[in-house]
């Protein structure tokens, strides 16, 4: 491959930070999450959302607890403009939710943007962006550093002028392609904007630093964020924000390290939709915090309902291996994993009983499951599934949870061989119902003891509705190897059988 055509990030931009502090910091609180699904995510869709889908997605974000939402690019399309007007005319957003609209630094487009938000009762952030990296300056904009900085300030001045009669409006600036912009130039432009907009604690300005195209390892982005965090003027009047993309597959790591480096706000999409490989995944970020004991401040307690809505609105399915949300992320097929999970569940139940507390209240310490699936509304039904890779532990778990059977270890080993043979022959997963049918075929639907069998004891106990518990113990001599087993069946099957066969 022609790798010689590319340069590493250190040859493209300097990172003037040698005494970094972020590696020693810890994530102890959630940042302000700002979903951009309705703008950045929407513009990446082959079929952008219609007004009904945008409304449904917006209502989902409100229900989940987001307090600042980027709702569109009103100067770019009539649909976006009309959706913002809907928020103004129908007061759809709760009073504590801030509305964000997106605009380039062009007077005519800024005017259209300001027209869209007129009359919105909520706090509104007007988000202006301009690409600042050398390649974009040279190839796209044809501007020098000085010319581009002046153009950005002119756009900021237009926004300030048009927002003069709107006391509910605050401002945001993004030096697009920040991670490839010279640090001193990014700092200069951001400081000029916060000065122009008079950033202060009572009316802070959001400075958003996008990894518009991910080009380096996450530690480089963290260094860049910390440099800005430590050197920005009017820092107490700045909300430092990040907007990572996922071109290298490390958007989540970039966001987490950026927060360690001083970022207070993170823009992304709920399940990582967005241009090319997507924006940073807000669900993964939030639930990563949850898994570390930090309240993410967003409600993912019914993740399947959230997923259904997002899939409907975007027309993009969530992958079955998507962290926290995929169909298979709480499922084990491997025998060793299944055995550890089964034992972990048992230990968890025993510890809760010993402490006299609810299983949902005590610390979660189950192998291979970083969070309790119930935290996001999942049941335990699909935690263990059986195929040719599975072992006796997983099989025993399903027999117990689905049918109330508690086979002893020797029976588990014997039955696992039958399941393995069945799965190898079919090449398919074995469902719980198929497992039960195989079990009854092997151990229950068998011929009665032969004439040489010696019945040692027999007892019957009435259960209810014509069901009896039958216990038979017998000894029989056969040429084939015998198996000793004990099976206890819970009320779900309302029966119990006990038997032993011993070879002579």
Q: What CATH architecture label of the largest domain applies?
A: Alpha-Beta Barrel
* Alpha-carbon distance between the two ends: 69 Å
User: Please, what is the oligomeric state?
Assistant: single chain
State the domain count: 3
Uncertain ranges? 478-504
Radius of gyration: 31 Å
Mean pLDDT: 88
Number of helices: 16
CATH topology of the largest domain: TIM Barrel
Keywords: Acyltransferase, Transferase
Organism: Nocardia otitidiscaviarum
Protein name: 2-isopropylmalate synthase
InterPro entries: AIPM/Hcit_synth_CS (IPR002034), Aldolase_TIM (IPR013785), LeuA-like_post-cat (IPR054692), LeuA_allosteric_dom_sf (IPR036230), LeuA_N_DRE-TIM (IPR039371), PYR_CT (IPR000891)
Summarize it.
This protein has 504 residues and is α/β, with parallel strands linked by helices. The chain has 16 helices and twelve strands. Helix 5 packs parallel to helix 7 (145-162).
Can you give a write-up of this model?
The protein has 504 residues and is α/β, with parallel strands linked by helices. The protein folds into three domains: 24-314, Aldolase class I (TIM Barrel, Alpha-Beta Barrel), CATH 3.20.20.70; 335-444, Helix Hairpins (Orthogonal Bundle), CATH 1.10.287; 454-500, no CATH class. The protein is 39% helix and 16% strand. It is built from 16 helices and twelve strands. The chain has helices at 9-12, 37-43, 51-64, 78-90, 107-117, 134-141, 145-162, 183-196, 218-231, 251-260, 282-291, 303-314, 335-355, 392-403, 409-426, 432-444, and strands spanning 32-35, 68-72, 98-104, 124-131, 169-176, 205-211, 238-244, 265-268, 454-464, 467-475, 484-488, 496-500. The strands form three sheets. It has an eight-stranded parallel beta sheet with strand order 1-8-7-6-5-4-3-2. Strands 9-10 form a two-stranded antiparallel sheet. Strands 11-12 form a two-stranded antiparallel sheet. Helix 3 (51-64) runs antiparallel to helix 12, helix 5 (107-117) runs parallel beside helix 7 (145-162) and helix 14 (392-403) crosses helix 15. It comes from Nocardia otitidiscaviarum. One of its GO terms (biological process) is carboxylic acid metabolic process.
């Amino acid at each position: 491959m022609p790798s010689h055509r590319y340069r590493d990030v250190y040859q493209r931009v300097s990172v003037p930070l040698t005494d970094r502090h972020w590696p020693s910091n810890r994530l102890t609180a959630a940042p302000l999450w700002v979903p951009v699904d309705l703008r950045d995510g929407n513009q990446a869709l082959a079929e952008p959302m219609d007004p009904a889908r945008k409304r449904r997605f917006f209502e989902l974000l409100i229900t989940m607890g987001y307090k600042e939402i980027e709702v569109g690019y009103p100067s770019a399309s009539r649909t976006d403009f009309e959706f913002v007007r809907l928020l103004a005319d129908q007061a759809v957003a709760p009073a504590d939710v801030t509305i964000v609209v997106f605009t380039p630094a062009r007077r005519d487009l800024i005017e259209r943007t300001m027209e869209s938000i007129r009359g919105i009762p909520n706090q509104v952030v007007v988000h202006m962006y301009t690409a600042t990296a050398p390649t974009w300056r040279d190839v796209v904009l044809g501007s020098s550093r000085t010319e581009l900085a002046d153009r950005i300030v002119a756009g900021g001045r237009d926004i300030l002028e048009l927002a003069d009669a709107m006391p509910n409006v605050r401002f945001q600036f993004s030096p697009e392609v920040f991670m490839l912009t010279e640090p001193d130039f990014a700092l200069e432009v951001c400081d000029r904007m916060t000065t122009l907009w008079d950033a202060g604690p009572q009316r802070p300005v959001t400075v958003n630093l996008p990894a518009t195209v991910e080009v380096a390892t996450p530690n480089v982005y963290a260094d860049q964020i910390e440099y800005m965090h430590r050197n920005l003027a009017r820092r107490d009047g700045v909300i430092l924000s990040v907007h990572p993309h996922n071109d290298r597959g490390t958007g989540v790591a970039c966001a987490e390290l950026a927060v360690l480096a001083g970022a207070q706000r993170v823009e992304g999409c709920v399940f990582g939709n967005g241009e090319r490989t997507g924006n940073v995944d807000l669900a993964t970020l939030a639930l990563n915090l949850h898994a570390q004991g930090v309240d993410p401040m967003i409600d993912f307690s019914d993740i399947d309902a959230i997923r259904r809505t997002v899939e409907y609105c975007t027309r993009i399915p969530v992958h079955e291996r998507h962290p926290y949300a995929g169909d298979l992320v709480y499922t084990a097929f491997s025998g060793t994993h299944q055995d550890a999970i089964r034992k972990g569940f048992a230990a968890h139940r025993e510890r809760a009983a010993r402490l006299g507390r609810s299983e949902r209240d005590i610390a979660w310490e189950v192998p291979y499951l970083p969070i309790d699936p119930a935290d996001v509304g999942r049941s335990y039904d699909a935690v263990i599934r059986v195929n040719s890779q599975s072992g006796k532990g997983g099989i025993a778990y399903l027999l117990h949870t689905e049918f109330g059977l508690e086979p002893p270890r020797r029976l588990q080993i014997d039955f696992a061989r039958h399941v393995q043979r069945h799965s190898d022959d079919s090449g398919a997963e074995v469902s719980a119902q198929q497992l039960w049918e195989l079990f009854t075929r092997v151990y229950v639907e068998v011929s009665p003891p032969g004439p040489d069998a010696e019945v040692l004891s027999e007892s019957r106990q009435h259960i209810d509705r014509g069901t009896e518990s039958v216990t038979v113990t017998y000894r029989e001599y056969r040429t084939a190897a015998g198996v000793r087993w004990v099976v206890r069946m819970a009320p779900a099957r309302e029966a119990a059988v006990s038997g032993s066969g011993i070879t002579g």
